[in-house]
Amino acid sequence: MAVPMLCRLRSGRRWALAYINRGSRHGAGTPTGSRSSGKRGQSSVVQQPLITAEKPRKGEHEWAAVVGLEIHAQISSNSKLFSGSQVLFAAPPNSLVSFFDASLPGTLPVLNRRCVEAAVMTGLALNCHINRKSLFDRKHYFYADLPAGYQITQQRLPIAVNGSLAYSVYVRKKPSQVINKTVRIKQIQLEQDSGKSLHDDLRSQTLIDLNRAGVGLLEVVLEPDMSCGEEAATAVRELQLILQTLGTSQANMAEGQLRVDANISVHHPGEPLGVRTEVKNLNSARFLAKAIDYEIQRQINELENGGEILNETRSFDYKLGCTVPMRDKEGKQDYRFIPEPNLPPLLLYDSASLPAGADPQQVINIDQIRERLPELPSVTRDKLIQQYGMLPEHSLTLLNEVGLLQFFQNVIKETRAEPKKVTSWVLNTFLGFLKQQNLAVSESPVTPSALAELLNLLDRKTISSSAAKQVFAELWKSEGKTPAQIVSEKKLELMQDRETLEQLCLTTMEQYPHVVMDMKKGNPRAINKLIGLVRKATLSRADPTVIKEILEKKLSP
Asked: Between 419 and which of 45, 327, 388, 461 could a Cys-Cys bridge form, CB atoms 3.0 to 4.6 Å apart?
């Protein structure tokens, strides 16, 4: 059955709604495409067709896009994959390099247990089959920042295969809609990172920093089940959130801890797949979406103008907002994969197959790692929706912003306000202030306790909604003051004296007889104007509901 996608493919000024035919995705057709899985080499994604369902205009054709991803996540570990060198971001150049990292003769790799456990945990969280036996291989290619001339990876038999990643795409319509989607995971493999080449154009030289050389990576290969930038970016954000929840990777894209390569092609439905291009080293979900959408449109324009698509590697120029060629792939590179002679097969066990008397420090038990799995983001979102009656898009936002869910839960614990009101204040007012000043949740000057106290004042009708916003703004500027202190200093309490309020209403009605006349004629806006005038006279210290009640009573026949 075909299911609607959210992406739109444009031909000229036309936008097409793409559809996926599930039979074509999971059919027994022979897959095409390169399977090599190196960071700098050809893609390991196998592309399969998507079908668009649209009535084309005269002279126009339908286009289908195919997008697959290769994601490299740096493993959260104190030391590197095969050496004891420390892993630390922004350390002085070449200060964290062991003899093995520099590939000095006679050095041997020693596998990092923490990296293996991280790979197994990630595989389990992504519904993968964990291979009880996996192998390491050498992938040969030359770069100045790859001292050995080869990368240790898992080409033949990776640690995890055949998984899936579920993610939700928010459709900005009224009413809003969340569409749940799934992308298949081909494999997860352990491999080394390379060093870093720092190009100095001023001196026409390249400097090498080997601090990153040998750092453990998880390469997650997603099958081409996506067809636009928005879907790809959303899937990467979900994976990022899962990795951070597991603690297997900090997945900070700004620090290069999560890098994405996108494989993109377009074709007419029912025809063979088009030639694909690879856009390398995307380190931002926003740039990933822009790069994919640009590349799809570039390929469509090129083909419609009689050109051809080259099988090439491209990079994304975020300043220009376009992809630019790096190198072509027409001459297929031979990586000369061979088994890694210095590493035996990696054997994993479950409780049933664990050898009797085995040293727990020398073996890895898959079942024990499964028991340590934390609650995954999708489960947390479902709980928020069920427990607080929250909209799905609100649950998405709470989890996507680092630390925001914990902040929300702490406010909930300390306030008597309804969860919907707390949700509104956290997502609209609190998050709005954070984004205005480009702050993280952890950097907020307003604590959960302070916001909870403010909401309690509002819930008890001690202050009005507009006064509450004033208090919040003061809290943001005045660290150390409590909401109650600000309310007292600014005299923002609601008027509790009904007689005084009734007198103010009468005075306002006498001062504005034409508004009263409009109200009597049935003008619905007149009552709101009168309420505003009375509130102005009370310096916004009167409850609008009480004012409306008094006015309606005095104007009733």
From this structure: 388
pLDDT band at 60 (very low <50, low <70, confident <90, very high): low
Cα–Cα distance list, 508 to 110, 260, 503 (Å) = 84, 64, 9
pLDDT at position 338 over 70: yes
451's enclosing H/E stretch is helix 448-459
Q: Distance between CA atoms of 138 and 191, rounded to whole angstroms?
A: 10
Both structure tokens of 547: 């004012």
For the sheet containing 14-21, what is the strand order? 2-11, 14-21, 51-52
Per-residue pLDDT tens for 62-121?
A: 899 999 999 999 999 999 999 999 999 989 999 999 999 999 999 999 999 999 999 999
pTM of the model: 0.81
Nearest residue to 72 via CA among 193, 229, 214: 193
Say how far apart CA 519 and CA 463 lie, in whole Å.
Answer: 28
Reference 192, options 149, 238, 161, 162; nearest CA is 149
| pLDDT single digits (tens) 520-540 | 777 878 888 888 888 787 766
Instruction: Answer whether 538's CB lies under 8 Å from 495's CB.
Output: yes
Strand 64-74, strand 346-347: pairing: unpaired
How many other C-beta atoms lie within 10 A of the C-beta of residue 535?
A: 19
- Alpha carbon distances (Å) from 31 to 66, 71, 128, 224, 272: 13, 21, 21, 11, 11
